Amino acid sequence: MTSPWLTLPGDRTAATSTLVVCFAPTGAHGSTFAHWRGRLPEGTAFATVVPPGRGTRVDEEPVTDMAAFADAVADGIRELRDGRRLVLIGVSLGALLAYETCRRLLDSGVPVARLCAVAAQCPGDFHGHGEEVTVEDARAFVTGTGLTDPELLADPEFEEVLLPPVLADLRLAAGYDGRPGTVPEVELRAVWATDDPHVPEAAVRRWTGWTRGACTLTSVEGGHYAHQENPAAVIAACLDGLPGTRPSRRSVLGAGATAVASTVLGLGAVASAAPEARADAPAATEKGDASFDGDPTDPVALAVAMIRQNTSNPGDGAETLPLARMLQGVFRSAGVTTEIVPTPKDGNVHFLARVPGSGPATRKPLVLLGHSDVVPAIGDRWETDPFAAEIKDGKLYGRGALDMKGVNAAFVAALLRHVREGAAFDRDIVFWSDCDEEQGPYGVRWFLTEHPGRVTAGAVITEGGWVLNQRDGTTPMIASLTCNDKRSLLLRLETASYATHTSKPFSGQAVIRLGEVLDQLGQWRAHIRPNALSRRYFAELAEATTDRSFARALRELLDARTDRQRDRAGEEVVRLSETPELHNAMLRTTLAFTAARSGYYPSIVPGTATAEFRAAFLPGAEDPGRVVAELRSLIGNRATLSVVGNPGETEQQALDRLRGYLATPDSSYDTDVFRAWQNAVRHTHPGVRATACQFEAVTSAVPFREENIPVYGMYPFTVNRDMLKRMHGTDEHIGVEALRRGTETVYQLLAGLRTDT
Question: What's the pTM value of the predicted model, to 2 decimals?
Answer without folding.
Answer: 0.65
